[in-house]
Amino acid sequence: MAIINEIKCARCDRKYSGVRSRCPYCGARRIGRGKYSEDSDNAKGKMLISIMILGVFTIAAGILLFTTPVDADAVKPSDDPALSVPGLEDDITSLTPFEPPPTSPPPTTPPPPQVQSVQIWVPNSHQIRDEFTLNSTHPTTDLTVRIEPPGIEAEQNWELSRDDVVEMTPVVGGYRFTRIGNGAVTLTVTVGDVSASCIIRVAGVG
Fold this sequence. Notes:
The protein is an alpha+beta fold. Among the domains are: 6-62, no CATH class; 117-202, Immunoglobulin-like (Sandwich), CATH 2.60.40. The chain is 17% helix and 33% strand. A five-stranded antiparallel sheet has the order 6-5-8-11-10, with no helix packed on it. Strands 7-13-12-9 form a four-stranded mixed sheet, with no helix packed on it. Strands 1-2 form a two-stranded antiparallel ribbon. The radius of gyration is 58 Å and the shape is rod-shaped.
């Protein structure tokens, strides 16, 4: 018959059977002959061991991943029976992002033509006038302007240096000038940045 030794608890100094793993008096856990450990210390030990085992597995997996040779030609899409479907390659090609063809830049709009010259004309005679006289024989006259190059649509500014010699009345294509007093007046017509002048003399009024 075997004799079971008694163990002395390291916490409460009481003796108990050696077959027990805990002291029946104070509950201290036995980790060796006459030694005990707290539950918190045991939990910390288990956690530390788990972390170490996890770290070892992680390092081993990393070494295996980076040291395993990868043969790029080992498996080709064309060798895979699952991909050997008629028309599959065309479908894959059709998924390529569409690139629109290059477009040419929009045409540039040429700048509008600029006024090069302005001339004062007498419509009935088609003569350029830079000076003329209104008298009892010719008390009125119509004037228009000729712009180069033709076809330019720009605002025309007609201006008299005096308003007591002739009266300016708008007509189709220009203005009509009627004598109202003796003297001389300067007519200036401006189109864009170009101007033309004409001297109108009036005699025999009153």
